[in-house]
Amino acid sequence: MKLLAIDTSGPVCGVAVLSDDKILCEHTTQNKLTHSVNLMPMVDSALNASGLPLEEIDDLAVVVGPGSFTGVRIGVATVKGLAQGAGKLCIPVNALEALAVSAGSFDGLICPVQDARAGQVYMALFLSGDERPTRLHKDEPMAVEDLIPLLQNDGRPVLFVGDGMPVHREALKEALGAQAHFAQPHNAFLRPAAVAYLAALDTATAVDYNTLQPLYLRAPNAKKNSALLEAMRNA
After folding, report:
1. How far apart are CA 81 and CA 118, in angstroms?
2. What are the beta bridge partners of residue 4?
C-alpha cells in the first residue's frame, strides 16, 4: 500500500508519503504563506524525495475536518483534483483522531482541541490504544468553560494536543491544575504521518473524488452571514 497524505485543516500544512507501513517522507511547515501556496510544492517535493511518482500511489488521504473552514477546503479540493486527474481513490481522515495519534501514548484521556475561535474549540476524547485511539466522545464544538467541568467530572489526567491548546492553556491549567497535561511541541500538532497511518488502517473507507466531502461541525461564517442577510430581507 502506497499513500500520499495531506493535511491543511489547521495552521500547519503537512504532507506525508507511506509505503508498506513505512513513512518514506514527511514535510510540515507553518509560515506566513497560505496553504494554497505551500501545498503543491510540498506534494511534489515529498513524492520526489520518496522516489514515487503520483502514478505509483495507490490512494490519496486527506484530513476532512474538523478544523479551519478555508484550510479544510484547500486540502479536500486539492485531493479531489489530484484524484480526478490520476484516477485515484480518496481516504477521508478525521482531524481529531489524527491529533490523538500524533500525541502518542498517554495514561489518561487524550483531548485534541482545535481552535474554533470565539472561545470555542473542536474537541473529542480518546484513550490510547494498541492500533489506534479508542474514542470516548464524539467530535463537538464546545466552549472551553463547558469543556472544563466535563473533564473535572471524569477526574482522569488529561493530555491536551492541537492548535487550541496554546490559546486556552492558561485557562485549562488554572481550572484543572495537576489534572491537565500539555503535549510537547513535537507531538502537539497534527502530524501528516499520523494521517497516513490512519488512512492505511481505513482503506475500506476510500471513496471517489465526487463523494469526498469536508466535515464541518458548524456552518461556515459565509453561510451564517448569508442566512442572516436573508432573514433581514424577509423581516
Report:
1. 33
2. 17, 60
d(CA 95, CA 110): 14
Strands in 22-29's sheet, in edge-to-edge order, are 22-29, 13-19, 2-7, 59-65, 89-94
pLDDT digits (tens, 9 = 90+) for 137-146: 999 999 999 9
pTM of the complete model beyond 0.85: yes
SS3 at position 66: coil
Domain spanning 96-187 has what CATH number? 3.30.420.40
Q: 115 and 163 in contact (C-beta within 8 Å)?
A: yes
**Regarding the domain with residue range 2-95+190-220, which homologous superfamily does it belong to in the CATH classification?**
ATPase, nucleotide binding domain (3.30.420.40)
CATH 3.30.420.40 location in the chain: 2-95+190-220, 96-187
Kindly provide the b/e burial profile for residues 21-34, where b requires at least 16 CB atoms within 10 angstroms of the residue's own CB. Answer: eebbbbbbeeeeee
Q: Would you give the distance in Å from CA 30 to the centre of its chain?
A: 15
Q: Which has the closest alpha carbon to 61: 104, 18, 29?
A: 18
Residues 175-209: tens digit of each pLDDT: 999 999 999 999 999 999 999 999 999 999 999 99
